[in-house]
Amino acid sequence: MLSRAHGWDFFDRLNKNDVMIVQGNEQALNLVKSGERAIVAGGDSQYGSAARLQGHKIDNTFPADGTFALPSTASVVKGSRYPNAAKLMAEFTLSLEAQKLWPASGVYAARSDVAPPLGSPPIDKIKVLPIDYGYVKANASAVKKRFSEIFSI
Known about the structure:
Distance between the termini: 19 Å
Number of domains: 1
Radius of gyration: 18 Å
Order of helices and strands: HHHHEHHEH
Structural class: mainly alpha
Strand content: under 5%
């Protein structure tokens, strides 16, 4: 979505800043926790929040021009053995009681009536950018290829 919004020149310029590309959020955060890197761009906020709750001096910063929020979903598998129990479990996961458990581990709850993780802004204070999943699906291979070319990975 960033290449669509800002063009590939954005990534060409970014690459001139001694960028290190790693495979995942946890690996990126470990580089900050160890002091090897001072900043992680694009890291999942839950990892930063969890590290902060463990005593690491890490803050999450959300860009004023917006960020992406990836929803976690729950599903009931068609033909499952106990579909009613699965539906009850899915409903419970969205209850106030269950949603209040998430922030203690650094994760935003799905409900707006639950406080954010300690030290994090309320979700309604963060500009959330839309994700065009159709575009992502149709262009994923080409985007990954171009990204890899720019960053030589």
